From TrEMBL:
Pfam families recorded: Tmp39
Keyword tags: Membrane, Transmembrane, Transmembrane helix
The gene coding this protein: tmem39a
Alphabetized PANTHER family for the sequence: FI21814P1
Cellular component, GO annotation: membrane
InterPro entries hit by this protein: Uncharacterised_TMEM39
Source species: Nephila pilipes (Giant wood spider)
Transmembrane feature ranges: 75-94, 114-133, 154-177, 183-202, 400-420, 426-449
Superkingdom of this protein's organism: Eukaryota
Membrane topology term: Multi-pass membrane protein
Ranges where the record places region Disordered: 12-38
Compositionally skewed regions (Basic residues) per UniProt: 26-38
Protein family membership: Belongs to the TMEM39 family.
Protein name: Transmembrane protein 39A
Subcellular location, principal: membrane
Amino acid sequence: MSTYSLKGLKLTPQNRKHSKMPGGRRNAKSNSFKHHAHAHSHASDDRHACDLPAQPQVVPPKHIPLPDLPPSSDLYFEIDAFALCIFAMAGQYINLYRSVFWLPYSNNEHALNFYLIDYYILTINVIMLSRRLPVCILKQICNLCFPVSYQPTYTLCIHIVTIVSLVPVLLFCFYNVILEYGIPSIIFLIYPFVVSIVVLGANTTKFLELKSAPPERTTVTKSKGGSSANIKNSSTVNHVCSMSAETVREEVEMLRTDFNNRWKQVLFNSFLVVYHATFLPCYFTQSTLHYDVHWVTQHGVFTGIGCFTLYVSHCFPPKYCDVLHRAALHLGRWQRVEIKNVYVPYSTWTESAMWNQGALVKHSKELFKAEGIANAAEPGHSGHSRFYSLFKDPSTAAKVIWLLQLLLITAEMLILVQSHTWNDLISIQLLIMVNCKTLYGMTKVYFVVKKIYYEENALITKFSH
């Protein structure tokens, strides 16, 4: 008897030989059986697999190592970030409390009306903007004095000392601000802490340091006896070139978690700088003080964009983005397709298989086509699709951030040329100095990674065809 598959009438080799015999009776029988299979099997879907050719072997992606592009150390970055915060806040105070000291009948001998500045608010802003710098300095000193095995212990001690030192000062300033501006002012003082808990969680490490430790990564390895063992390594974020689909998805989930944590910290810290350096000085001003609302708002926007690009360039260095890029090449992506031909050949997606480029599979009653050279992603998984789209070519994201920084400095230069008051000139120049340093580092990184990933894409295209 002939053996048929319920998915598309797949014949065995022996029956294929008989199916080539002349005559129409066997063909009529096949057509009758096909109609019967369509009537009773897969009643909810009218698309079925035809005689599917053998799946070709999946070619592993080719990686080109990045050249040595060492990012700035945490200490140098914290100094740059602190300089940006202080310059932004100084520029805002200049915009608010400028004086007309040059007039012959002016009673003020200073460029600013210092007697109008609330020094309790100023102290709160300085503490919140510089909270990471003393922690970083103390950690650098402890790294030189103690072995690496003691790092968790002295890091905890540094956090305790920092909190014990800063909290009493903040509470004292809060108390005096409430006495001066009333109880409703406490809402604006504790608002950043509420946002921190909502975004980062109740974790002082993420509040006092920019980057938290990477999440634990679990990889499955086979021992000599064939059994699997879990190996956890939370010391670094790295990539393991594996052709196991389950291992690739586990690695991608770990990298997605770490990427989301870093992204939250970038957004939160950028918000915190804008809030304490530009907004609070404006909110806690005397009602009789007149200032240019348009200019101080523009100063806040420029400060936010400058902080955002600075934090992104540090939290997502080229080596880190390359790890995510390599994982994305192994992950691949599935594109949902609509095919009118009901006899198009397809396979049933299985979570343990790697799929080659162009493979057509069925998952959850939908057809998907593989786009990557190697595909371990789950069809219809939006997180996997976003991960592949974002890190298939990291030079695209680097180009967007680089162009954003370039447009920022261009806009600041144009406004500087059109400015005519001394406070406008000084406040905008303070931002330009820090932003130009950030642009220099981003330009060097962008053109290097652009060339590397262009060559890698050409290499992958060559081997995949």
